[in-house]
């Protein structure tokens, strides 16, 4: 009989811990590739606890004598959601970074406790830090061979059997052989024999393949070991590689069963092998070192080339943005009619936007779960609508919609904030929205010297909010892939905090990032204006050195009803008018009838 309640599942897990001789276990949202989005087979945390967010970790102890013996750790994005979805009778709610999982384990596990973790779901750095905290408390972190959640999850789905497929070179812009040769040259330069490529988007980019194994990201569950002679071993489940894929890759890519990956790591004994400490799980390092290989911790050599889009990828992005922008414009026109009626809810709005994207005929998937936030829900930065939280879009309120699509030629990500009429938006809302807009324009129009990191530009987008004594608690920009991950490193635009990943990465021509300042008034409304931008070379008369700037890629109207015209400078008005002239130029040929008339009105100059 299947366990239907989360209480029964927790009880079964505790009995399994007893069988395996461990006193506790850590359950993250993760897979063997440390993916942002994971397949249904890897949704262990959701199965155990009911939590449906994209980031979180549970710690479960066998012994409950000192309390609940279990805790859920989430960041501020999920403070409300975790309480809606996870039973507070069973789990303590913990907020990171204020609360530390390692410290909670150390305080609650007890002297001599053995806390288990699955080394295929965590980085080595995480394991080392937690092991030290436990050791200081007289406890021990233990790698398990069998994940105890898997042992009790009776109807756990199998990993996806969807076939991999080729990403056409006309869209990729480079052959897989060319990319592998670049990695081989990097290996020789570093005096290395091989590199383990375990991040799914890196595997996809390197081999020019895509897949359908993970929602929202078109990747195939597999690993690559790339060698210094330009060849590669690709570890993927048998039956997932059609003949045309293997023929395209040729003999230089040896296709091997995914189950052989661990054994293949042990074959690298005596070699110097690169593995990325941020993208390769602890088990990979353990297997290499256990076989006598030298595991060299270096950033995945695919990460930076993947981030720098070549001309074909740039062209593809522009085509995808034009197509996506027309779908968004059709949605905004529909919303202008239906929103003020007070009958549309968040789920219906998200589904209608999805329908407009599907109608393009080229949509392969959404690039992430649409953030459809009405009124106070818009103030939850990474809000995800559910049946429990679904709200109506009320007349006289703010609606925030952050969404994107996966197309063969590009990945999109756009946020628009809309006033649901009738009537005029309150002065405070117009003020905050206009300050967000001013920051967006300031970043979009900035030129900067080569070598500039994203953290050096972050303040540009915040300055007008700071003048009013307000700010936002998320980064200003993230990298975006080409028909790959919507959140792609290594580049970011964000506050520099203690070497936070990506903030020290210099921006390079060809990188694509989001430009998304915002403002959030808890319990009332949220505002965000997001376009994607391409880093491009700039020529400045009389300049010294090399300079860069941004080309705005995203094309869709920004709501004029939320703009306080008096707060904009002449240069900002000029940007607004030029941007909307471009929106009209690109989108108008794709629209007709009332939608076209709406677009014409939305794009009239300020």
Work out the strand percent.
15-25%
Rounded to the nearest angstrom, the radius of gyration is 25 Å
Number of separate structural domains: 3
**CATH homologous superfamily designation of the largest domain:** Creatinase/methionine aminopeptidase superfamily
Which descriptor suits the 3D outline?
globular
- Poorly predicted regions are none
Largest sheet: 6 strands, mixed
Structural class: alpha+beta
Class of the largest domain in CATH? Answer: Alpha Beta
Main-sheet strand order equals: 4-3-2-1-5-6
| CATH domain topology of the largest domain | Creatine Amidinohydrolase
Quote the distance from N terminus to C terminus: 65 Å
Number of strands: 28
Number of helices: 19
Helix content: 25-40%
Overall pLDDT level: 95
CATH-derived architecture of the largest domain: Alpha-Beta Complex
Explain how this protein is built:
InterPro entries: Creatin/AminoP/Spt16_N, Creatinase/aminopeptidase-like, Creatinase_N, Pept_M24, Pept_M24B, Peptidase_M24_C, X-Pro_aminopeptidase_P. The structure is a single chain. The chain is an alpha+beta fold. It has three domains: 6-152, Creatine Amidinohydrolase, Chain A, domain 1 (3-Layer(aba) Sandwich), CATH 3.40.350.10; 165-300, 3-Layer(aba) Sandwich (Creatine Amidinohydrolase, Chain A, domain 1); 308-596, Alpha-Beta Complex (Creatine Amidinohydrolase), CATH 3.90.230.10. The strands form eight sheets. It has a six-stranded mixed β-sheet with strand order 4-3-2-1-5-6, with helices on both faces. It has a six-stranded mixed β-sheet with strand order 12-11-10-8-13-14, sandwiched between helices. Helix 14 crosses helix 15 (346-358) and helix 14 (311-338) crosses helix 19 (593-602). The chain is globular and about 70 Å long. The N and C termini lie far apart (65 Å).
């Amino acid at each position: 009989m299947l366990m239907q309640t989360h209480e029964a599942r927790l009880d079964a897990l505790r009995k399994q811990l007893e069988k395996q001789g461990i006193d506790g276990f850590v359950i993250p949202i993760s897979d063997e590739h440390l993916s942002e989005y994971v397949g249904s087979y890897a949704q262990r945390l959701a199965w155990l606890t009911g939590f449906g967010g994209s980031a979180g970790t549970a710690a479960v102890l066998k012994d409950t004598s000192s309390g609940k013996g279990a805790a859920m750790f989430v960041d501020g994005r999920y403070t409300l959601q975790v309480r809606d979805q996870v039973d507070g009778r069973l789990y303590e709610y913990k907020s990171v970074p204020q609360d530390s999982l390692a410290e909670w384990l150390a305080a609650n596990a007890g002297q001599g406790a053995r806390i288990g973790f699955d080394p295929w779901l965590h980085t080595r750095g995480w394991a080392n830090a937690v092991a030290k905290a436990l050791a200081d408390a007289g406890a021990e972190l233990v790698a398990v061979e069998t994940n105890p959640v898997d042992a009790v999850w009776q109807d756990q789905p199998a990993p996806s059997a969807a076939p991999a497929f080729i990403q056409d070179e006309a869209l990729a812009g480079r052959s897989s052989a060319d990319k592998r040769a670049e990695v081989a040259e990097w290996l020789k330069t570093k005096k290395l024999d091989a590199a383990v490529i375990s991040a799914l988007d890196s595997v996809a980019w390197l081999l020019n393949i895509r897949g359908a194994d993970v929602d929202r990201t078109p990747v195939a569950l597999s690993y690559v070991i790339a060698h210094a002679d330009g060849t590669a071993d690709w570890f993927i489940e048998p039956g997932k590689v059609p003949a045309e894929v293997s023929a395209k890759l040729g003999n230089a890519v040896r296709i091997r069963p995914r189950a052989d990956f661990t054994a293949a790591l042990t074959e690298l004994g005596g070699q110097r092998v690169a593995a990325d400490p941020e993208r390769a799980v602890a088990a990979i390092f353990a297997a290499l070192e256990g076989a006598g290989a030298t595991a060299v911790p270096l950033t995945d050599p695919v990460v930076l080339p993947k981030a720098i889009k070549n001309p074909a990828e740039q062209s593809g992005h522009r085509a995808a943005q034009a197509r996506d922008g027309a779908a968004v414009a059709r949605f905004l026109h529909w919303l202008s009619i239906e929103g003020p009626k007070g009958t549309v809810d968040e789920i219906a709005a998200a589904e209608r936007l999805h329908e407009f994207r599907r109608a393009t005929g080229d949509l392969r998937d959404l690039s992430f779960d649409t953030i459809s936030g009405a009124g106070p829900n818009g103030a939850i930065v990474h809000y995800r609508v559910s049946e429990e939280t679904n709200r109506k879009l009320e007349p006289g309120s703010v609606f925030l919609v952050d969404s994107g699509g996966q197309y063969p030629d590009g990945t999109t990500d756009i946020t628009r904030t809309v006033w649901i009429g009738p009537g005029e938006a309150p002065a405070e809302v117009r003020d905050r929205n206009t300050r967000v807009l001013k920051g967006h324009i300031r970043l979009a129009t900035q030129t900067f010297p080569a070598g500039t990191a994203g953290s050096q530009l972050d303040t540009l987008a915040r300055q007008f909010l700071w003048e009013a004594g307000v700010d936002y608690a998320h980064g200003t920009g993230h990298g975006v892939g080409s028909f790959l991950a919507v959140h792609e490193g290594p580049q970011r635009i964000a506050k520099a905090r203690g070497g936070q990943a990506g903030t020290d990465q210099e921006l390079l021509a060809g990188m694509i990032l989001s430009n998304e300042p915002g403002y959030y008034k808890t319990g009332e409304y949220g505002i965000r204006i997001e376009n994607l931008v391409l880093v491009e070379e700039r020529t400045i008369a009389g300049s010294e050195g090399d300079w860069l700037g941004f080309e705005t890629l995203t094309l869709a109207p920004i709501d004029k009803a939320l703009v306080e015209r008096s707060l904009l400078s002449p240069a900002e008005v000029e940007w607004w008018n030029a941007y909307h002239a471009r929106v009209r130029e690109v989108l108008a040929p794709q629209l007709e009838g009332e939608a076209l008339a709406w677009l014409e009105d939305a794009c009239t100059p300020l």
